[in-house]
Design brief:
Blueprint: H1 16-28, H2 43-59, H3 64-74, H4 80-93, H5 99-114, H6 120-129, H7 138-153, H8 155-161, H9 163-180, H10 187-206, H11 208-211, H12 217-223, H13 229-240, H14 254-257, H15 263-268, H16 272-284, H17 291-301, H18 310-320, H19 326-330, H20 336-345, H21 350-365, H22 374-386, H23 392-408, H24 414-430, H25 438-441, H26 448-464, E1 478-482, H27 487-493, E2 529-533, H28 534-555, H29 560-571, H30 586-599, H31 618-621, H32 624-635, H33 638-649, H34 654-673, E3 681-683, H35 684-687, H36 690-703, E4 719-721, H37 722-746, H38 755-763, H39 771-784, H40 786-789, H41 793-802, H42 805-816, H43 827-837, H44 842-856, H45 863-872, H46 882-894, H47 899-906, H48 916-927, H49 929-944, H50 960-973, H51 978-981, H52 988-995
Helix pairs in contact: 1-2, 2-3, 2-4, 4-6, 6-9, 7-10, 8-9, 9-10, 18-20, 18-21, 20-22, 21-22, 21-23, 22-23, 22-24, 23-26, 28-29, 28-30, 29-32, 30-33, 33-37, 34-37, 34-38, 34-39, 37-38, 41-44, 42-44, 43-45, 44-46, 45-47, 46-48, 47-49, 48-49, 48-50, 50-52
Length: about 1000
């Protein structure tokens, strides 16, 4: 059957993405027509509906508006899943889409911008990558026009919400403009050129502070457009009048020279398919077996008459965007320099060849060891050196071009360029990329004038080395990051950030509640640091993310170490100094990580239904979820918190997993505390608690910048102080509280959601845990999170529902010892809790009253006020309140008969449970008769005193059962018992008269 979505060759296999969308559409097509169902879809149904709606919109334009309205009605994740599907289609299928589907795709993008869909920036960047340089086909020119028109029409939104998209758009259109402007007489290109120029000039003139983030390659692109009148004025101001750009701190073009361009810009100019083929060539193809791969690549991507200009972008990508690991470098895989040499030989036009050489040497001109990566300049050096034996003409041409660049690129700032090239040569020699520069200066195959020229340059550069070249301070802020590693490590991590040696406060957490909930916004600090440009940091993170994705897709496994580097590196971005400048947002990074984990069968944030035993806990302890939670607990950094909140907003049970982790950590710490050694320490290998000790291992690794050779890092035989364990548990609960507080702020303001409600929801995930662990978990909640749990009806009801009577009794012991409080000291809160508990099951009422008696017996709660409020409220129905009244009776029996409490009992209304007062007095007469009658005397005295400050006599009725019991008690004791009667301020006759009231 012919596809409505894709152009597929007769023998081509079905595409799995298209198949899944079509099957969902065929299954759910009746639901995509009005009237729409009113039911709330399950997560699986929601995913299928998104697929069906997307297929319908792309393939049935006449129904698109109706289906988009349905999408708006069902969306629950900020359109995240829908955007991921859309991005996948753009990345993998765009070139195969039929024309009508492409038109619908652009319309969908406009709708997603209107609703500010989560991940829209990634979709726009994916579309920019589909613009192919040197391609003058109608489809490619149409995409150029549609996207630049969209950017101009949505200008205000882009500036406010997605400024990084403007930078990406500027880089893309500056690059394609150089192709489009080579044919000034082509009427088909005229309208497109005008709107592209309008967009680029608008960005440069109105948002130049964003342009600065592109770095030095912005100058390279503008040089190709110097012949265009509109850009001549830009060039004039860049060189002579930098103040015209109205950007604070920008004083000279040299500031752009010193800023390295992020590798993500080079990815913009090659399609995802081209990137995959290049990475395959540079990762798997052996040297000597590459010819058929190269021939296929030429036919596939460089066969058009003007496609040759793509080689410029490919060379920039190979130099700065693909950094092989040590294993690849030491293998027989075709090296980068060999691929670049082949590409240079493929150039047929002289201006293209010149621009390819400039792309190869561009980072040499401004190389700074502090911020630049040696891997960016390595290919050019190796190409020159390795070409000497057989292709000396290549070496001669490249070396001559480099020396001409030094003399002519920017004569007014030649000292900067001389320093950059000299530094490149010096670094390459010191790091062992080449044994010595003499391999060039003493090469017999090179012409003597060229060798002499090179020798003079190197001597002049060395003589100037001690002289510091002072550049104007860039407007791009810088900040501290870990120092560079050796070349071997650099080739492995490809310029990524080294692990941070992070310090935490001695007090990891606190049980006291702080309403401000402090969260760190400072970068994770390192003891040895180096000032690094912020774009290189972002570049490093993107390289890490790319490695993470490539590893996951290549081997179907998740590299936890790379994920940890991503998280720590992301926390290192200094939010105060570069707010809004980074393309990597917490939302986009969290979405990308979740997507890759899901594609590889790893479910992120899956709550523990039970605590696994020691033999099967590795999958949980070493999971990606556990790593993310640990990293947040240790750093409690704002960026990581934003990632957790993003996952939570998109339906991941982050709170449940975080609470599960914290409770498990606390439980193992509790068990470890019960295994005391004589010196108040414990041995890890004796306790069998892998979760706790992995947490501690990672804590020490975190403190020591990830070094596993730290003496504290090996806990298998080490002794650990219990105070450290207690601090770690405190810190874990503090991190969870912080997450709850910020979760409340990030949720719908109209929803009545409190941190206590979120805690209750998260606690539900622990319902299937073993009773012993569950009981400990509730105790921990009331101890560490008392501000969120004390007096909370839902949590208390969950407690008495899940725990059996034996566990309730054990909790009563701990409550009696005042280890924690369940109900608090607010009588109103306790009253409403008791009132609502009357509707609970009988077993739950028995359990809760056991807890109430245990706590109120030792607390400062004014029981007399509570009892009066309960009996006077009229809530005590004889059929439903018997357990509550029994609980009150037992509570009164264990409390001392103070004047206030005795007075409250004497004043209870003569309604339901009339004999309650008499029963309480009778119990006190047996256990505390002396105190009872002392208190009774005080009460009666105050009762008869109109000025008494506790009770007033006006309108007061004494409880009949209390008076009857007193008369009966006195009769039993005999009227001659003067010790009792003498203490009362009223006579027996008075008591009888009270009974008659």
């Amino acid at each position: 059957m012919a596809s409505k979505l894709l152009k597929i060759a007769p023998l081509e296999a079905q595409n799995q993405i298209e198949l899944s969308l079509r099957q969902a559409f065929e299954l759910l097509e009746p639901q995509l027509r009005p009237p729409f169902p009113l039911t709330i879809p399950t997560p699986e149904e929601y995913s299928q509906l998104n697929r069906a709606i997307l297929y319908g919109v792309l393939c049935e334009p006449h129904f698109a508006k109706i289906q988009i309205k349905y999408l708006h009605a069902i969306v629950t994740d900020g359109y995240c899943f829908f955007l991921n599907l859309l991005t996948s289609i753009v990345d993998e299928l765009y070139s195969k889409l039929v024309k009508s589907a492409r038109i619908q795709l652009i319309s969908l993008v406009s709708v997603m911008i209107y609703v500010s869909a989560v991940g829209i920036d990634g979709l726009l960047v994916s579309l920019l990558r589909q613009i192919v340089g040197g391609d003058f086909s109608d489809g490619n020119l149409w995409l150029c026009f549609e996207l630049v028109s969209l950017f101009l029409s949505k200008w205000d939104w882009l500036v406010e919400e997605e400024p990084q998209v403007l930078r990406n758009g500027l880089y893309t259109y500056l690059r394609v403009l150089s192709d489009h402007c080579r044919f000034p007489g082509d009427s088909k290109l005229e309208a497109l050129r005008r709107i592209e120029i309008e967009f680029c000039i608008k960005v440069l003139r109105e948002q130049f502070h964003l342009c600065l983030r592109i770095g030095r390659d912005l100058i390279r692109l503008l040089q190709d457009l110097v012949h265009v009148p509109e850009f001549q004025a830009v060039w004039k101001d860049l060189v002579l009048n930098p103040g015209e750009f109205r950007t604070q701190g920008f004083e000279d073009i040299s500031q752009l020279y010193r800023q390295r361009t992020s590798s993500r810009y080079f990815l913009l100019r090659i399609t995802p398919e081209m990137e995959s083929q290049l990475r395959f060539l540079l990762t798997h193809v052996k040297l000597g077996s590459q010819k058929r791969h190269q021939a296929w690549f030429l036919r596939k991507f460089l066969s058009g008459s003007e496609r040759e200009t793509l080689i410029i972008d490919i060379v920039r990508f190979i130099c700065c965007g693909h950094h092989p690991s040590n294993d690849i470098i030491q293998s027989d895989v075709i090296p980068r320099w060999a691929v670049i040499g082949w590409l240079l030989k493929s150039c047929r036009k002289s201006y293209v060849e010149a621009n390819v050489k400039l792309a190869l040497f561009y980072d040499w001109l401004f190389f700074d060891e502090r911020i630049d990566n040696i891997m960016n300049v390595e290919p050019a050096m190796l190409l020159m050196v390795n070409s000497i034996p057989k292709y000396v003409a290549m070496t001669h041409t490249l070396l001559e071009f480099l020396l001409l660049l030094v003399d002519n690129f920017d004569s007014e700032r030649k000292d900067i360029i001389v320093k950059g090239v000299t530094s490149s040569f010096g670094m390459l020699a010191r790091k062992g990329v080449v044994g010595s520069i003499h391999v060039l200066t003493s090469c017999d195959a090179l012409s003597p004038p060229l060798k002499e020229w090179l020798g003079r340059f190197l001597e002049a550069g060395v003589s100037k080395e001690p002289q510091q070249v002072h550049l104007p301070c860039t407007s791009v802020p810088s900040f501290n990051l870990p120092s560079s590693t050796t070349l071997e490590t650099q080739t492995v991590i490809a310029g990524e950030l080294t692990e941070s040696k992070c310090a935490l406060n001695d007090g990891v957490g606190t049980k006291a509640f702080d309403s401000s909930v402090p969260i760190s916004v400072e970068p994770v600090t390192s003891y040895s640091s180096l000032v690094v440009n912020c774009e290189s940091v972002e570049d490093a993170i993107e390289n890490l993310v790319h490695r993470f994705v490539e590893t996951a897709r290549r081997s179907n496994t998740i590299d936890i170490q790379i994920l940890e580097k991503i998280l720590l590196s992301f926390a290192n971005l200094d939010d105060h100094k570069v707010t809004g400048a980074f393309a990597i947002s917490p939302q986009s990074l969290s979405s990308k990580i979740a997507k890759e984990l899901e594609l590889n069968g790893h479910k992120l944030f899956s709550p523990l239904e039970s605590i696994p035993n020691i033999s099967n806990c590795d999958d949980v302890v070493h999971s990606a979820t556990a790593l993310i939670i640990r990293t947040f607990i240790f750093s409690q950094h704002e960026r990581l918190l934003e990632m957790l909140l993003s996952w939570s907003r998109h339906g991941f049970p982050v709170g449940k997993c975080l609470l599960s982790y914290v409770l498990r950590l606390a439980y193992e710490a509790h068990m470890a505390g019960n295994v005391m050694l004589p010196d108040n320490s414990m041995k890890a290998n004796d306790l069998g608690m892998p979760f706790l000790f992995l947490h501690m291992d990672e804590y020490f690794s975190f403190l020591n910048g990830g070094r596993i050779d730290s003496p504290e890092a090996d806990l298998s035989t080490a002794k650990v102080d219990h105070q450290l364990v207690a601090n770690l548990v405190d810190g874990a609960f503090s991190a969870y509280r912080c997450f709850l507080m910020y979760s409340r702020n990030s949720l719908d303001k109209a929803a009545d959601v409190t941190p206590a409600r979120l805690l209750f929801s998260d606690l539900g995930s622990c319902s299937k845990w073993e009773k012993q662990i569950l009981k400990f978990s509730f105790c921990s909640i009331f101890y560490y999170l008392s501000d969120l749990s004390t007096g909370e009806e839902d949590i208390i009801k969950l407690l008495v529902t899940l725990l059996d009577q034996a566990d309730i009794v054990l909790m009563q012991f701990e409550i009696g010892l005042k280890k924690f409080s369940i109900f608090g000291e607010n009588t109103e809160t306790i009253f409403y809790l008791i009132k609502n508990s009357l509707n609970w099951g009988l077993l739950e009422q028995h359990k809760v009253w056991g807890l109430i008696r245990s706590e109120l017996a030792v607390s400062k709660v004014q029981v007399e006020k509570l009892i009066l409020e309960i009996f006077c409220s009229g809530i005590l129905d004889p059929n439903s309140a018997s357990i509550a009244v029994e609980g009150l009776l037992m509570l009164c029996s264990c409390r001392m008969p103070t004047p206030e409490l005795v007075g409250a009992i004497m004043l209870l209304p003569n309604t339901a449970f009339q004999d309650f007062s008499a029963a309480v007095l009778a119990r006190w007469a047996v256990s505390n008769s002396s105190v009872l009658f002392d208190s009774l005397a005080i009460f009666l005295e105050k009762l008869g005193n109109e000025k008494g400050d506790l009770f007033t006599s006006t309108g007061i009725k004494i409880n009949h059962s209390a008076i009857s019991w007193l008369l009966s008690y006195f009769n039993t004791q005999g009227m001659k018992d003067n010790d009792i009667l003498s203490k009362l301020s009223v006579s027996i006759l008075d008591l009888k008269s009270m009974l008659q009231l």
